[in-house]
Structures are given as C-alpha cells and as structure tokens.
Amino acid sequence: MPKKLKELNCKQKKIGRKCISASFLLQKMKFLKHILILIILSATTMVIAQDEDAVQFQAKVSKKTLGLNERLRVDFQMNKDGDNFVPPSFADFIVVGGPNQSVSHSWDGKRRNFTKIYSYFLAPKQMGTFTINQAKIEIDGQDYKTSPITIKVTKAKEKPADPNDPDYIVQEYIHLVTEVSNTNPYLNEPISVVYKLYVSPLAGISNYRELESPVFNGFWSQSMDDKRIKAQNGTYKGEDYRYVTLRKTILYPQKTGKLVIEPLSLDLTLEVPTNRRDIFGNQIKTQAHRTVTASVRTVNVKPLPEEGKPENFTGAVGDFQFTMETSKNSLNATESLQAKIEVSGKGNLKLFELPKLKTPSTLEVYEPEHQENVRTTMSGMQGKISDTYTIIPQYKGKFPIPPVNFSYFDLKTETYKEITSEDIVINVLEGPVYAEADNNLPLTTNGKQPVVLNQNQFAFIKTKTNFESITKDTFLNSPIFWTGLVGPLLAIPLALVFRRKREERLADVSGNRVRRADKLAKKYLSEAKKALGQKEAFYIALEKALHNYLKGRLNIETSDLSKDKIRTLLLERQVENTVINDFEAILENSDLARYTPITTVTMQQDYDKAAKTINLIDKQIRY
C-alpha cells in the first residue's frame, strides 16, 4: 500500500475514534439532562401536593368599590371542613342576606377536592372607607383567620326609571307606613302605633325580614303583635293595594315634649321581571334584595294641667273606681285582719302608685302584698290593681283607720277627680288594757298613749338554772384521734383505684369523644336557651349542639353529616324511626328559621323538642 494511503487511513481511524468519543459524551449529557428534569418535576410536584394539602381559609368580595344603593357579597371559603365558624361583626354594613352555606366535592382523577363557603350579602350604611375584619374557624383543632378587606362606599349610583328596576318598584309600588292613633296626647295617655306594608298588585314580594326593631325611647311600650300575619285588601292614596300588619304596639308617653317614634326597616326579596322568556313564552323573573324604611313620626306630648291638681296625685290617668275594705271589723288582740286598697278601671294601671294606708300606732301593720290583674289591648290597659295589708291589733279598744284619698286625671273631661274611702273602726274585743280610765281615748298626733302594765309582766323571765358539770375528755383514744391515724392509710388504696380508673378513662378514645360531644352539645344548648328571642344566635347555637352531638354519638366527621348517612347509622344503632324523623325535622327547622319570621314561642318549642329528642336517642342508641 502506498505511504500516503497508509497515512490517510491512519488519520481517518483517529478521527473516527474522536467522533465516537464525542458522540458518547453527547448522549451521556442528554441522559443526565433528562434525569435532572425528572428530579425538578418531582420536587415541584411534591411542593404543589404539599400546598394543595395545606389548609386554606380566605375571604373574597364581589367588588371593592360600590355605591351606597348597591349590595356587596362576601364569601368565606375553605378547602377543609371546620367547626365553630365566627364571622366578623359587619358593624358598618346591614346584613340583608346570609349566612348561606354551600359545600362541594369533586374528583380530578388524582385527588378529592373539597370546598365550603359561607356567603353574606351586605348593604352599606353610609359613604366612606370601611374594613371587613377577620373571620375565624376551627379546622383540625387549630384556629384559622382570614385577612381584613378594605371596601370603599361611594354615593348612590343613578339608574334610569326602568319599570323592572328593583329601586323603581320599591319607590312606586311598595310602601311601609307608620300609623299613629294620636300625635298630641297627654302625659300617660295611651296611643297605638301600627306598622303596615302596602304592596301594589304590580309588584311581587316573595319574602321579607326585619333589619332593626324600633326602640321607643321616652315611652312605656307593650307589643301587641299577632302570631299570624294575614294579607288584606285596602287602599293607599286612593289606589288599590294589598297590605299586611307587621307590628302593633301600645305606648304610654313618660315625658312631655316632642318624642320620636323610630321607624321600622325591612329587607325585601322582590320578584323582578327580566327581558328573557322560557320555552313557553312566559317572562322569566329574578330575585333582588332591597331595603324599605318607614317614615319617622313625631309625637308632641302635653303635660297634665297644674290647675286643680290634688296634693296626693301620683300620676293616675284614665277612668277609675277606688275602694278600701277590711276582711273584718271585730277581733281579739294578736289576731289578724286584712285591709285591701283597690283601683279598677281603664288607664295606666301599671304606671302609678296606690295611696298608702295610715293607721294608729296601736295597730301593727306589715308591708302590703301587691297584686295586678291587668290586660292590655290596642285601646290601653284595663283591669285592677290592689295592695293588701295585714294588720294585727295589740290592745283592747276601738281604733279608727283614717279614710284614704285617691285622685286621677280624667281624659274625657280633662279634669282631676278625687275619691275618698269610708271611715273604718276596728273593734278589739279582748286583749291588754289600752288606758287606765277609758279604752276609747282619742288618738294623739304622735299616736302614743299611756299603757297600764300588769303585775306579772316579767313572768316569762326564768330565775332558776339547771347547770350541769362537764367532764373533759382526753384526745388519746378519741374518735378524732383514730380517724386522723387510720384515715391516711385507707386513702392510699382509694387513690390507686382512682388513678387506675383515670388512666382507663384517658385511654378510652371513643368514650372521650362521646363525652366531649355531650359536653359541647350541653354547652351550645345552654347558649341557645340564653339566646331565646334572638333568632340568629339561637338557631346557630342549636344547630351546633345537634351537629356536635351526632359527631360524638355516631363517631363521624362534620363533612359526613348528610341526611341519608345519619338516618342509616341511627337505624343501625336501633333508634326508632319516629325519633329519627323528629331529629331531621329539627335540623330542617334550624335551617329554614333563619330566613323566616319566628316568634319566641316557636323558638322555645324548637328548643324543648331538641332536648327531648337528644334524650330519647341517648336511651335508645346501642353500640
């Protein structure tokens, strides 16, 4: 082979070896790159999985800037179920809806996703910049809080006069009216206040809720609300309307001058037509929330006239009858009789004092027993009140009880009237002698008379004694000595038994859970009882009591509290079907009652039913 050809072959072989080495290194670098990418992706996946498993609890708002006549939605969202949710106070807003609770479960092929939301609908009270403070919830035994959110409220936004606009409907077709029977009454003269909601046939209301109940400052008041609210036909400003009477109250002004009757405010749920239609051509309606407030009314209270006012006048205003009588007029000393002062009729019976009974010092008089038999209607109070005195004479003789005067202001004649009782003489037949010469001596101004004493007036004092000597016992061999010696020794085995029982109790996880649930149920039942009359607080506490009780008794989590599962587990534990139906009915009532008008009587019935049903489940459940 020629020399040049050999050199060429040699060079080609060297280049080939270098190419093979370079190709190998390149393949190795690509392999290492793929491994590095896999490591980065695995680490990222682990971080994302950890982030997804972390508890998230946050607040979201529909908008951060709104007009004074707009509504704001606030959602408190979490990715794990929790207990004991505590919302912020919303002090700068009016809660017109909520809390509405929604729960959703989903599966994306890799893991289960859980979302729970508490929603509130708020109306601003005034313009300005306000803060929605933190909400709090307990998840897996740890407290979580949301971050505060700043909301800016601007002036009301102008809207065109659209017949389907909720604001236009409220202004034109819905009217909340305050009717006052008398705007110029006397002091303590009854007046009635009635709140009526007038709704035109052109408007539709599906529900309403009171935002604030009126407070009648300067008045004695009593509510006369009907348990049933019935719609009636009527007219408002000459046009046909349907109306309901929401509140009726009787008032007695307690001071003179101009007094303000506070308005009633309602949150209305309106049925508003839209421009859409269903497949049958009917117009589709949507719901909207609006606030309507009655007008403020002022009452000018006149003072009672000073001319002709008796000195013994105590504030009685109305039309009354007055009597004073005794149970008997003749008796022996140390026996008792009753003197009754009574006022009956129509007027402010609960708002004045009865005249006091005056008697001689020789008659022992006890504090009176006050009784009232008064019923209140829309025209005022009527009935009777009385003071009954118990009198015990001390001496023999005849003792007069001075007449009693009662005065009142008559609204019909607008004058004062005075009634005087008849003279009453108490004849004490037997007893200690009242005076030396005559038992019928007149009473002095200070009511004191000389009393003749008997010779044996000190006969009740003992002059002889029967003292006995007392021997001193030694401490040794006494019961106290042996108790102190043996007692600690006996306490040792008792302490060991107590310690063993305590360790067994702590090791009983299931039992401790049941006991903790019972404790929480009793706690929230107690809170519900204290909150009777406060609808929102009462039903929140009642619902917490029922949920905590079920979690402990059935050994389930909050997220598993479904109606079907509760029924299945209770039936497996031999609980009667009627008791289960009662329990489900209580839970449904707790949900519905927050959004409907509820009386205190209904709340008491729900509370009694919940306590009775829990007691029945305790007796019937088998493990």
From TrEMBL:
Pfam families noted in UniProt: BatD (PF13584)
Ranges that cross the membrane: 480-498
Keywords: Membrane, Transmembrane, Transmembrane helix
Source organism superkingdom: Bacteria
Name of the protein: Oxygen tolerance protein BatD
Gene source species: Olleya aquimaris
